[in-house]
Amino acid sequence: APEPATLVIFGVTGDLAKRKLLPAVFGLWQDGLLGSAFNIVGVGRQDMTDEAFRDFAITALKESKETDAILPGSLEKFRELLYYEFGEFGEDDVYDRVRTELDRAEEEHGGRKNALFYLSTPPSLFEPISNGLGRLGLADESEGWRRIVIEKPFGRDLASARELNDAIHRVWDESQVYRIDHYLGKETVQNLMAIRFGNAIFEPLWNRGYVDHVQITASEDLGLEGRAGYYEEAGVVRDMLQNHLMQLFALTAMEAPAAFDADAIRDEKVKVLRAVKPIPKGRVGSVAVRGQYGAGAMYGEKVPGYRQEPGVKTGSRTPTYVAVKLEVDNWRWQGVPFFLRTGKRLPKKVTEIAVVFKRPPLGIFPGGLERNVLAFRIQPDEGVSLKFSSKTPGQEMVLREVVMDFRYDAFGAQLESPYSRLLLDAMLGDATLFPREDEVDHAWQIVSGLLEAWEAAPGSRTGKTGAPELSNYAAGTWGPDEAEELIGPDRRWRRL
Ligand code: BG6
């Protein structure tokens, strides 16, 4: 278990804290993973007593789908670990009270004043909170370890991400900073590393000699979920591509690290991100497609288009779908394109990484010239499948594609929430699954051209098809037709 510590959650009354963080902390605590000398200080701008906050948190736990089965008496005990402070994040008072909370925790538990500060707030508050903690000496580690967890989005473009990194570093050392990308907390994302580097049969094939291309898909069936305020500003490139998909890409494409430790892994991720050709602002149309969902049907029910969602501007040009082709300039991947796609209101929720191999050099049977595919299903139906050709029964030598399938539920264990894993890692001081400053920077460098081109020239047209760059796709379909052109003509997106 981690040393005695206090978890301080800024923005504790927000959606993320209610739906994900509190359930994750509760689950860890109930499993005995946080030790007994632990408490939580919620911080918000709303005036609330400790008792009111406790009620709020218990209700959140009962309502969240993510809460583990609650053992008898557990909630009552958990309740006693909770405290609340309120104030304006730009003023010193609130940080002063947080400091008093750490003093009290030390008196209660003994030990040092260890603290994990979790910034679960809108991004505009990251810098003021970090500065406030710094002003009151709360980043200083002389009385215990101090770490800061920063939620996404980390910046809104390359320049602002750099400014934010600079601002954070004026207060914290990089070793104290934990930038969250919850995809890295998913079991099956970690399994990608396990399978690549824990087996001998995959690595020899994992390169331009055998791989034709790679497809990374994160499709979501959900629409806006009442998040128009955030999403209108962010759009799909900032919401999913720059972070989650770039992380999946880096883990798929990186070289084997020398050891399974934070810096060895992050060094390799950075190396491959640096090898990616940044998307050229002037040629965006040839390597990327964006779209926005229109009205359509999901699972047989009519749903409104993006522009009809509450809070979205009538003429909004915010993309909800993006597909890109990345080229990696290194020895391993020269000439092997990586196609990434993600969007909202696609037919179903599925995240997968598919490594598509080259065709056999010669077809001596009818059929049988298909490309083999090794697919990592990140969610749902977590698992790994290998598609290859086999003889079909009968007199004739006719081949057909078959699938060998490993399902993660064969382990019989419930998958942990990514937030539990990441929270515990941060408490233990293990930064392996947290993107480092330079990773975030390179991921922004790659997508910057997209944002600049798309945000500078609304309404301009792609040269090739003459279609508007922001194509509509009906909710419940697999995105704009241009995405097929992007990957084609000899390749096609997997039908998932
Ligand atoms: C979040 C995005 O980071 O990831 C959401 O802000 C998206 O828009 C979510 O829905 C997807 O995460 P998951 O774990 O459900 O695949």
What features would you highlight for this structure?
globular, binds 6-O-phosphono-beta-D-glucopyranose, about 500 residues, alpha/beta, 6-stranded parallel β-sheet, glucose-6-phosphate dehydrogenase activity, Glucose-6-phosphate 1-dehydrogenase, 9-stranded mixed β-sheet, 17 strands, G6P_DH_AS
Short description:
The chain is an alpha/beta fold and 496 residues long.
> How far apart are the first and last residues' alpha carbons, in Å?
41 Å
Radius of gyration: 24 Å
Name the average pLDDT.
93
Bound molecules: 6-O-phosphono-beta-D-glucopyranose
Class by SSE composition: alpha/beta
Q: Could you tell me the number of beta strands?
A: 17
What percent of the residues sit in helical stretches (DSSP H or I)?
A: 25-40%
Q: Please list the strands of the largest sheet in the order they lie side by side.
A: 16-15-14-13-7-12-11-8-17
Shape annotation: globular
Give unreliable regions as ranges: 460-468
> Beta-strand level of the residues, as a percent range?
15-25%
Task: State the major sheet.
Answer: 9 strands, mixed
- Tally of helical segments: 13
Written as H for each helix and E for each strand, in order along the chain, the element string is EHEHHEHEHEHEHEHHHEEEEEEEEEHHEH
Structural summary, described in words:
Helix content is 34%, strand content 21%. By secondary structure, it is an alpha/beta fold. It is built from 13 helices and 17 strands. The longest helix is centred in the middle third of the chain and has 26 residues. Bound molecules: 6-O-phosphono-beta-D-glucopyranose. The site of 6-O-phosphono-beta-D-glucopyranose (BG6) has 4 residues, from loops.
